[in-house]
Specification:
alpha/beta; five-stranded parallel sheet; two-stranded antiparallel ribbon; 11 strands; globular
């Protein structure tokens, strides 16, 4: 945290000193000090420096949000104090803060992710619950490394069943805790606590994760929480919800009960309408700005091999509506006719997709276009026509959709995107299940700010080229 605060302060302090050094009638040091305090104060007020959250995400959208708050705050101070410096110079002095803080956040996130891959900077978790639900939670946590939780032991509830996940079992709790007597009389102390605490101490756990079930709910879970908290440990409860963004979840209480409220996905309203308008407008501007590049790419495709410049392909869009997708041609003209002979070479891991790392049908220019994703630029026309969005799930082929089940069909509840979580997370290097999980999470949890984050990450993905073949 000190490094992050120092970088934030320096990103404002030094540029303001430089810009205001030549401004007559102003104290550069005073202006720089006030601005640095305001910037770090805004970041602290937004809880960006908390140990539990710092580095947990790239923070690019949050940085832009905080920077706009800073500009508004300084504008209010300017109005109250009568400060009369040049507005353009003031904004110029603040711009480096946006870049420095954004780069620092991305670097801290990358560093934390690398440590997580080495099982460092993690929380040691003891899971308590019935065997089946515990197995499911442990497997889901073990499947990914982009979180802080490492399961180091379990305490099972009930005598039935065993674990298949391989995590050590540190104890068993009876099917009932016996805390509430069958006949009136004094209530004994909670018997579950000593077993769970002994297991937590033996494994040096710093978090107890309870998985509610038929045998662990209500009063029993409440009493277990007392024991865990009195021992100085943290208790978390696995709700059973999956792939729900935190912003969609709120908590309330009624009659002593705790309710989790889950807001529905954004399907209608001002945000989807704004997304559609902004997507079309941005795509139209991009087409005009990139016209010279598009012409050069078209000439390169034409000169490299015979055949049309553009490749047209039927894809499935919003609500299962088919549309014609446009791309620069990257393969020989008879590519589809040659595909049956290459089925055995398909390298895609599961699912209906067909990918070969060194596909012999791809032309020389086509390899460059795929490596840089420039072959996708004609899809800006699809965005302008409202058939696609700038950000969304990968547009599927009709034969893929024909094999979809109810879960996969949820991908069609939003417009497919020119880029999306699949494209910025590895593309063809991801398995079918990994790509599907990313698309489903986007479908139910998308937001305008999330789209901006994906667009920012797209530039890095294009430069990296991982999974582009």
């Amino acid at each position: 945290m000190p490094l992050t605060v120092t970088a934030d302060a320096a990103g404002v302090l030094l540029p303001v000193l430089v810009v205001y050094r030549t401004a007559p009638g102003h104290s550069p040091l005073a202006a720089a000090t006030v601005t640095a305090l305001a910037w770090t104060g805004v970041r602290a007020a937004q809880r960006r420096y908390r140990a539990q959250t710092i580095g947990e995400n790239r923070g690019l959208v949050a940085t832009v949000h905080d920077w706009l708050v800073l500009v508004g705050l300084l504008a209010a101070l300017r109005a109250m104090t009568g400060e009369d410096s040049d507005i353009a110079s003031a904004l110029l002095a603040l711009l480096p803060a946006l870049a420095v803080t954004g780069a620092t956040g991305a670097a801290v996130h990358a560093h934390l992710t690398a440590r997580r891959h080495r099982a460092e900077a993690v929380r040691r978790v003891l899971v308590v619950g019935e065997a089946g639900p515990v197995d499911g939670v442990v497997a889901q946590l073990a499947a990914r490394t982009d979180h802080a939780y490492v399961v180091i032991g379990t305490v099972l509830v009930g005598e039935d069943g065993g674990l298949t996940c391989g995590v050590p079992e540190m104890g068993r709790l009876p099917a009932t805790d016996g805390a509430v007597p069958a006949v009136p009389g004094p209530v004994p102390g909670p018997p579950d606590g000593p077993t769970v605490l002994a297991a937590a101490r033996a494994q040096a756990a710093d978090l107890v994760l309870a998985v509610p079930g038929a045998l662990l709910t209500g009063e029993r879970l409440r009493r277990l929480g007392w024991s865990v908290h009195d021992a100085g440990l943290t208790l978390s409860v696995a709700s059973g919800l999956t792939d729900v963004a935190p912003r969609r979840v709120s908590v309330s209480t009624a009659a002593g009960l705790t309710f989790l409220h889950v807001a529905p996905p954004l399907r209608r309203g001002p945000q989807p309408a704004a997304k559609a308008v902004l997507d079309r407008a941005a795509a139209a501007v991009a087409l005009v700005a990139l016209a010279p590049l598009l012409l050069l790419l078209a000439l390169a495709v034409r000169c490299d091999s015979r055949g049309p410049v553009l490749h047209r392909q039927t894809r499935v869009g919003l609500q299962g509506e088919p549309f014609t997708l446009w791309k620069f041609r990257t393969m020989v003209p008879d590519a589809e006719a040659r595909r049956p002979g290459l089925e055995a070479a398909n390298e895609y891991r599961g699912g209906p997709l067909f990918k070969i790392r060194r596909d012999p049908r791809v032309t020389r220019v086509g390899r460059l276009l795929r490596r840089t994703s420039l072959d996708e630029l004609p899809q800006l026309v699809n965005v302008v026509r409202g058939q696609m969005a700038l950000v969304g799930p990968r547009p599927p082929l009709p034969d893929e959709v024909a094999r979809y089940g109810p879960v996969e069909l949820r991908r069609l509840l939003v417009r497919p995107g020119l880029t999306g979580p699949w494209q910025v997370s590895g593309r063809a290097d991801l398995s079918w299940d990994e790509g599907l999980a990313l698309d489903l999470h986007y479908t139910d949890n998308w937001s305008v700010t999330g789209d901006l984050d994906v667009l920012a990450r797209t530039f890095r993905a294009v430069l990296d080229g991982r999974g582009a073949y």
